[in-house]
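=== Structure Prediction Worksheet ===
Name of assembly: unnamed complex
Input type: mixed (protein and possibly other molecules)
Chain count: two
Listed entries:
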Amino acid sequence: MTLAVFFGCAFIAFGPAFALFVFTVAKDPLRVIILIAGAFFWLLSLLLSSLVWFIAIKASNSQDLTLQRGLLIFGVFFSVLLQEVFRFAYYRLLRKATEGLAAISDDDGSAISVRQMAYGKLCLCSAENSLVLLGFMLHSGSLDGRFDQMSLCVSCAVAGLGFGIMSGAFSMINILSDSLGPGTVGIFGDSQYYFIITALMTLALTLLHTFWGVLFFEGCEKSRWWVIAAVVSLHLLVAGLSLLNPLYEGSLPPVYGITLLMGVWAFFSSGGSLHSLNALCTRRKAEGESS
Amino acid sequence: MNTSDSEADSYNERSALVECESPTIPSYNQDHDMSLPQETDTKRRRPVSSGLDEPGPVERERASTPDGEEEELTLKYGAKHVIMLFIPVTLCMVVVVATIKSVSFYTEKTSQRLIYTPFEEDPNSVGQRLLYSLLNTMVMISVIVVMTIILVVLYKYRCYKFIHGWLILSSLMLLFWFSFMYLGEVFKTYNVAMDYPTLAMIIWNFGVVGMICIHWKGPLRLQQAYLIVISALMALIFIKYLPEWSAWVILGAISIYDLIAVLCPKGPLRMLVETAQERNEPIFPALIYSSAMVWMVGMADSSNPDSADERLRNEGGALAQEGVESEDDAAQGGRRRCSAEEDLEEDRGVKLGLGDFIFYSVLVGKAAATGGDWNTTLACFVAILIGLCLTLLLLAIFKKALPALPISITFGLVFYFSTDNLVRPFMDSLAAHQYYI
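=== Predicted Assembly ===
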C-alpha cells in the first residue's frame, strides 16, 4: 500500500464529487450551507440506525455468527430506509426555506439566464461530459425563469450531493488512512482489489445519492409517489447488491448500470432534453470556432 | 512545561466574559451606527465576548432602507456571513487535526497539568475519575468567573494600562514561546535539522509581524491568518494539558456558562459592556476574528478620512475582550475603504470571538486524538458547522447578541460520543464485509 494507492483511490472516490462542489456549489454560499445541512441529515440517519443496530447486537447472543451477520444485514436495510426518511425530512425543510427565499429576490430573476450562460461557458472549460450533464441538470430548472423552482431544483441536487459526500466520506476515509500505512492487501486470502472496489463503490454511491436527491425532490414536488417508491426500492436494491460483495462481478457492474440509468432519468426529469444537450454542444462548437 | 499563569488567566478571562447585550440598547441599530462612529465601535464591541461569544458578529449596516428591504438583505447576506465564518473555523480545525495526527507531542500525556486542573485523574477507578473531573471543572470555571470579575473591577476603576499590558504580554507569550515549542515539535517529528540562528530569525519575524498585525495595523488576510494560527496553538495546548475526562466536562460546563452569562442580566460581562457604553469608549483590544471589509457609504461623518481613521483606531481598541489570553487583542483588522457612492452598503462582515475558535478546535482535536477513527472527527466537524449555522440563523432572527458556543458544543459532544460508541462499530462491520448503505 503506497501513496499511489492512496491518491488513486481518493481521486476515484471523491474526484467527481469534489469537481461538482467546486464548479456548482462553492460559488454560492447558500448552496454550501445546503450541502452541509444535507451531510448533517445523513449523519443523523446513520446515527439513529446505528443506535438500533447496536441495541439489537447487545440484546443478542454475540457468539452466534450467523445471527450477527443477519443483524448486520437488517441494519443495512433499516439504515437505507431511515436515510430515505431523512431525505424526505430534508425536502420538507428545504421546501419551507425556499418558500421564504422566493420572497426575496426578483432581481435574481434577471440574473438567472446570465448565470446559466456563465455556467454553460464554465462547462465548456471543463472537459467532463458528466459534469456538463449534471451542471445542466442543476440549472435546467432555470429555463422556466421562476426563481423558486430553480432554487429548489438546484437545492435538491446539492442536498443529494451532501448526502452522497457524507456517505462516501464515512465509507472511504478510514480505508484511505489505512492505505497509507504498511500492509499487504488480501494476504489472508481475501480479495486484492479491496481498495479499488471500495473507491469505485463510493463513487457510484455518491453519484447515486445526487441523482436520487433530484428525483426524490421532483417526485415530491409533483406528487408522483411512484418516483419516490422507485428511488427507495432502487436504494434498497443497491444496498442488497453490495451484500454480494466479495463477488465483485455481481455487485459492481449492476450498480454502475443503475447509476447510469439514474443519471439519465434525473437529467430528463429535471428538464433537460436532447435538444438542450444539442444546444450545449453547438454552443461549445461555436465557442470553439469563435475563440 | 506548565503554561504561565498570565496566559491561562487572560485566556480564562476571555472565555469567561461573555458578551451580553444590554437590554436598553439594541444590538444593531443601523441608522444609529451609521451616524455615530463612536457608537459603532461600541456596538461592534458588544457582540464580541470572549471567545464564547457570540457572533454579535453580523454587523450589517443598512443605511436607511425600510424594514422590509432590511429583512431581504438580512437573509441575503446571512448566507454569505455564515460562509465567511465557516472558512476560518474550518481552517483552524484542519490545522489542529493535522497537527494532532502527525505530531505525537500533543497527544502524549505527561504528568504536568495546568494549575487550573489540579486533580489528577486516576485511570483505574471510574468513580474517582468522574469526581475529579467534576472538581477540575469547578475549579476552572470558578477561576474564569473570578478573572472576569477582576477584569470588570479593573475596568471600572480605569486601570487601562494594566489591562493593555497584560494583554500584550499574553499575546507575546503565545506568538513567541508557543510557536517556538510548536516548531520544535514539528521539526522533531519530521527529523529536520535546524540551527538556532535560523530558528531565532524565523521566530522573531513571525512574532513581530504577528504582534503588529494583531495589535496595530496589517493586511486583513494576514491578520486573519495570525488569529487562526493563534487559536490553533491555544487549542493544542489545551488538548495536551487538560486531562481526558476533565476536558469533556469543561467543554460542556463552559458552554452552559456561556449561555447563562450572555442571556442573564447580572453577568460581569454585561456590566463591562454597560460601563463601556456609559463612558462611550471602546473596551480594550481583544481578539476577535473579523471577516470584514468595510465600505463606507457616503455619510457626513465618515466620508472624511479623519473620522475613518478614528473609527479604525477605535475599533481596534474596542472589541470587547474577554480575557483573551494571548489572543487578545484585537485590533480588528477590518480594513476600511471609503467610498463616495451613496448606494453601497456598509458590510462589516461577521465577527466571532477567538475563544469560540479555540473550543471548537479543542473538541475536534480531542475527537481526532482519541482513537484512530476519522469518522468521529468528521462527524464532530459537521456538527460544529451546523451549530454555528444555527447560531447565526438565530442571531439573524433575534438580532441580539448570542453565545456561539452552546449549540455547536452540544451538537459536537452528542455526535462525538454517539459516533464513537455507536456508529464506529457499525461502520467497521460494514467495511469489513464491504456492505454499503
